[in-house]
Fold this protein.
Amino acid sequence: MTVHIPLEIVIKIFTLATRRRNDAASWIRLSRQTYTLFERLLYTKVVLLNENIASTFVKCYRLRQAHIEALPPTTAMLMGDGIKYNTIIDVLSLCKDITNLCIVSRDSDNILPDLTSINHILDTLPLTALSLIINSSLTRSSMVMANTFAKLTHLEIDDEGLLCRLDMSAFHQLTHLALWTDLSDRRLYLPRLVNRLLQLATLKVLVFRAKGHRSCARSMEYHGILDRRIVIAPSKVFAWDHFGQGSMLLWELADETTNIPGPNHRKHRCFSNSTFENRFRDLMAVPRVRQRDVDRELVHTLLFTRPGIPPETIWIRNDSSDDSREEEITDDDKEEDSTDEVIDENSPSDDAEDG
């Protein structure tokens, strides 16, 4: 006797069973009923972590164009480190429906010379969310990208000098802004610059992605900057999972943090690396890591004991409290708290790959 399973149940089963792109790719020809599901999983949100994956994606996309009249739109994309400039142009020229774009490129050989070098492509996309972790400054010359910026509601950029150069009049719809800085640069006149950002009428959330939680918090408290829209967030970047889950997680966590009744740590609002990672893990149904409410800074420092004896290199663990003390740091702590990686190699994506 033939058993007919409702399509909705079939879709839920395959969604739960599929955590890797390879699985979805191998099952896309399973049946016509499930083809649309796997096609959506593979192409709606795309994660290209390196040059090899990105160039393969371009080849596959062009082959599909030759055989399929109307391709499903790709609306979100992450492009990882080491992807060549020409490949970036090829990808963005093919995927014309992207509304959420993240480019992570800190490879000095492949770095984008300036945002204006991809302006002719970005300007044609219906972008509302843009994340640029590319070691490239948003200079005044980049303001020719006015059309691109005018459409954005969410912007993240790692230019620490952005506060000095940003012309906020270019952003007509910006509600969420994330900057990579700990606000400790003495060349910045902090109160005036931050207040200028907060005066943007549309701005609801201002995130500082700080390697130094302690220094960022103290700088804000010293200058009396206690606006509820400001959130201190981790500087560690977790890659989206294989199907683009978590593409808006930074902004979701920032919104949740600004909506709490009062500061959740001392006089400011923040969320930690473990909070960030655990939310990714929840999306992928993998075990959580140990939860910490506040990130600790782990830094090398020299400990001088007695004259004539060489100093000893030790780890100092700090948080944003008034007290800092030397503690024994385990290898697990160093790995968990390290902020040197651009995309965390121990992100939930890798757990899913092994599972």
